[in-house]
Amino acid sequence: MEYKDLRVFLSVVAAQNLNRAGQQLHMSASTLSRRIARMEEEAGALLFKRDPGALTLTPAGELFRQHAEQTLAAWESLRSAVNADVSDMEGSLTLYCSVTASYSFLADLLTRFRERYPKVDLRVHTGDAAESIPRAESGEADVVIAARPEQLPAGLTFRAMASSPLLFIAPRVTGTVPELSRAEIRWNQVPMVLSESGLARSRVDQWFAAQGLKPSIYAQVSGNEAIVSMVALGVGVGVVPELVLKNSPLLGRVRVLSVQPELEPFAIGLCAQTQRISDPVLQALWQTAVF
Questions:
Q1: By the number of CB atoms within 10 A of the CB, which of 60, 150, 213, 253 ranks highest?
Q2: Which of 57, 68, 59, 54 is nearest to 1 (CA)?
Q3: 3-state class of 26 per DSSP?
Q4: Which helix (H) or strand (E) segment is 237 a member of?
Q5: Which residues face 57 on adjacent strands?
Q6: If residue 245 lies in a helix (H) or strand (E), which one and from where to where?
Q7: Neighbouring C-beta atoms of residue 159, cutoff 10 Å
Q8: How far is the C-alpha of 231 from the C-alpha of 33, rounded, in Å?
Q9: Peptide bond into 153 cis (omega under 30)
Q10: Burial class (CB in 10 A: 0-12, 13-18, 19+), 50
């Protein structure tokens, strides 16, 4: 279990309400509910009572709260000891990432970087994930958080921070996509909502080609969030990174399909021009990005 999960748990305990905790954490209530369920599965016990009204802890939840507080206190103590010597480094750095990446990685990364390098001016821009690698290539951004492409452009260096599976998603309501109701799914007849281009599209096309099939494309859209929206409306099946799905307010309106073989996951990390990696400020961020 990750430290960020323990922090999420304690925030829910303090708020006693998923909606209030979600506002503080910038997450939807459905996303929090799913994370709590995953923690309960790992802990092997229910942590919250499912009664109407304020959320209250079960006896197991109280023990878990004590464990979370002690674990985080020990971690913060260790970090303080390791980072007791705050750097006087100065400078500026421009970072670009998608909105989804900002939810998933940016808060932890910036918190640790600010603690160690408080005098560095770090400017953050967010936008379409497809723009990340081009911005690193052009130098418009000093560093980007992005999915590693199949072929990393020459002159760029990538440092992985995490992995995100690519998932087939369908509407939550069974029967909305009739082609999924058959005992054996005929994938060449299933209406697909896919990215216009990019890594996810490339891997979906490879998946269909490996099965000797041609996808039945209902719509091609720009942006993974748009795919989740269209699938939630019931128009077909989409493919999105798990990171996008976990942070989507429409998480409760779609379901993940068990599909074999699975798609190759995304590697998410920092990317910058190789010739600039030795820059002291960029190197400082590079070394901070250990998840």
A1: 253
A2: 68
A3: coil
A4: strand 237-241
A5: 48
A6: helix 242-246
A7: 17
A8: 21
A9: no
A10: exposed
* pLDDT per residue as tens, the chain (291 positions): 677 888 888 888 888 888 888 887 777 888 888 888 888 888 888 998 877 777 889 999 899 888 888 888 877 776 665 555 567 788 899 999 887 777 777 778 888 888 888 888 889 998 888 889 999 999 999 999 988 988 899 999 999 888 889 999 999 988 888 888 877 889 999 999 998 888 889 999 999 999 999 999 999 998 888 999 999 999 999 999 988 888 888 999 999 999 989 998 888 889 999 998 888 889 888 888 864
- 21, 31 contact by CB (below 8 A): no
Looking at residue 249, its amino acid is P
The rounded distance, in Å, linking the Cα atoms of 144 and 126 is: 10
Report how far apart, in Å, the C-alpha atoms of 47 and of each of 33, 55, 111 are: 12, 10, 28
Q: Which two tokens stand for residue 141?
A: 């951004």
Side chain identity at residue 136, one-letter code: A
74's tokens: 């020990």
SS3 98: strand
The C-alpha atoms of residue 191 and residue 189 are separated, in whole angstroms, by 6
Residue 135 · residue 263 · CB < 8 Å? no
The length of the chain in residues reads 291
Determine the 3-state secondary structure of 70 from DSSP: helix
